[in-house]
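Hi L., both proteins are below.
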Amino acid sequence: MSAMPGGTALPGGTEDHAMRRRPPSLQDPAGRLGLFTLLYLYQGVVAGFALTALANHFAAAGASTAEVGRHLAVVGLPWVLQPLLWGPVIDRAAPRRMGARRFWLVLALACAQASLAGLLLLGPAASLTAVSMVLLLHSLSASLADTATDRMIAGSVPAEALGRISAATRAGFVIGSAAGAALFAWILGTWGFPAAAAALLGVTTPPALVALLVREAPGDRFLSLRRDGPAPLPERGGAAETAAFARRLLAAFRSREAATLLALCFAVDGGLALFQVPFAVALVQVHGWEAGALSRLQAMLALLGGTLGAAGIGAYVDRAGPGRALRALLLACAAAFGVAGLLIAAGLGATTGPFILGLSSVVPALLYVALLPAVLLASRAGRASATQFQVYMAAMNLGDVAGSGLAGPLASVVGPAVVALGVAGLFLACARAAGSGPPRPSSTISASDRAGRAGGTP
């Protein structure tokens, strides 16, 4: 038997029953796996609507590559500013009765759903600009939720299980984006924008509610706005504390390895956007593809790479380490875009469009499974870990925004074959810069962190 606080003993059967009935929390492998997968599923559904189905829908309605690229850049802007906006908020979050990070997660998801409800006010003749502005508000809230989620991952997942969590979250995201792209492309084409906006709100609400069910610790409150004790007081004043925080953050990026990883994050997403945005628009406007069919194909390819492929890559990352896997997949991306460029140069772009889309989407989807553990391991130490991780993520989002913005002007002066071959060269340079990659997990976790996780399970 064990004793309760105050010395009252619980009978063995009662203790076991209480343990079985405790709420799911991040201390349970199944609880954290389910929560993180569903939160990324949520992100994927919105991305499938906003970045694929909606972009293809407006491209079919006559929007130019520049207009579609501007929409993608506007929606992605809060994700670029994420470290400045939300990293310090999560890193310095006060203890809460419902969990310091979970409080912000639940609040952000509530605001995100309220933003999606705003799409219903735009009507059937909504312009792409108006839709972009409402989705910008959603991205502000969703990026806060993502910051809290990533900090919860970094603080609860053992290093030896990061590959599996990366694969699960990637699978959640791509399943959501695939389902979102296919479902909302059909709804947009059949019933129009208001019906698609209503369906988006209905589909995303259940996974958002899961954040209420899984606690950071078993003893956390189900829902509470109260702090868990008095608010922490700054030791040297607000300005001095902010300056010290900034110095710690800058120090984290002074090493060659950190700077290289930061550049890789920017280059990967930038190169992908430079090719994918104009190629998708050209398939609809030049080669006569139907927008819904293109969205469904993109969804199917994303689903293939993010489920079966991600599971295999996740296991490989845990076995070999993220460095080796990252370099191998960068080389695979270079080969994929090289083949795509040669096919387009040979005049086979229209007839081999599905194959080219597969090369330019499935292989990069696998790359992210190796990239995320590398970034997490590089961000785990120190009091600015959430902000440090979000700087890496912001570099990826900045690359995506920059690539989307430059895709239109570049496509007007350079053919798609040259762009594809240029992206292949970029991935080759990234593979060479990556070298042996980030250190293995065991060498990047502090001694105190390892001691705190001794005896734990993935």
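That was the first. Here is the second:
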Amino acid sequence: MKFQTNEILNGKYTTRKTTKSVFLVPFTLLLIMFPLILMRNTDEPSPNMSSVQHMNNKTHTKGCDIFSGSWIPHSEGPYYNNETCKWMIDEQNCMKFGRPDDEYLHWRWKPNECELPLFNATQFLEIVRGKKMVFVGDSVGRNQLQSLLCLLSQVSQPEDVSHKYTTNVIYFKRYFFADYNFTLGNLWSPYFVRSKDADKNGHSYNSIMELYVDEVDEAWSSQVENFDIVIISAGHWFFRPLLFYEKGKLVGCNKCGMENVTDLAHYYGYKMAFRTAFKTLTNLENFKGVTFFRTFSPSHFENGDWNKGGNCVRKKPFSKEEMNLNGYILETYLTQVNEFKVAQEEASKKGLKFLMLNTTEIMLLRPDGHPNNYGHAMVKNVTFYNDCVHWCLPGPVDTWNELLLYMLKVQSHTSYGSKLESVL
């Protein structure tokens, strides 16, 4: 059966409403399950697929577009498991909680024009020796960071040194690989810009928030200059009800349902937040690092919305004949990529390097890679929602770090080599 992208959910992970017979879900679970999608009306016109092909043409590295390809069977097992990596969190530890199938672990991304090498942890650590790398964004970005921790820890065990830098050690993490003098961090900022709750009843899964789209979130901007390599990404939080402010004035909203307030859709907030984030990275006086922008990561809810029994039970990837990048996912993707293209040109004028990890279409083909209901123990009288947003560890998300390593290696031999060598 062909799965349509307009079958995906309406909602967002956060705290749940409970009855007297239902216990509160543990706090750590709430943190990881924050970003479920509040979908746009997919009857809206969709951009043309040629737009994506044009974007892919801009991601060639050494004559090979590593982002155009297909998933092929791979007989070897994963790089790590829940016994060899202590850094994965329960909500993505599908093995620990009894996922019965393992076919999702036996696929590799194969570019059409070349081979994508297997991840080499020693090689990665040698490239970043003496440097600092940080992920900026939401919990899907943190998902990639935890994948990277698992991959690298097979060679060198890091120390969690978060407490030396912040009191908020849940959202702002730092890990130090002493053998390589390498720091890996996470700066939590799901919107990149200043935001606050606007619902008089407090925060809930569908409460409205204010987004100041031209004011950067200082939680990350005040720290990012300390890093040499930045991986920036965001997505699912923008689908919730939002009020958009520019220059301190309300200019519109997404799903606010308010009279005399124009619904600008989530695309507006998404566009403006990326614009502000990219401008910040370009204009920070002391930021001389390399920026990797990872594109939107789709979810795969079927058989209902996220809070109405929606799940993701498939056991193998889609083929390109079964699933096309279209509808709101394509438009969301193009919204951010268009901002990236402008920022990339401006950054180059200042000698800064902006690169794109173009993973949206790659991950759209992997409905089998999510935790679904294998991110927690089965507890009587506790309400859990299936997670079809984040990715199992190990799993397809490890491919993002294969691509990252490939790009780090290739870029060190381009015309930007001397620039990158000074950073990398």
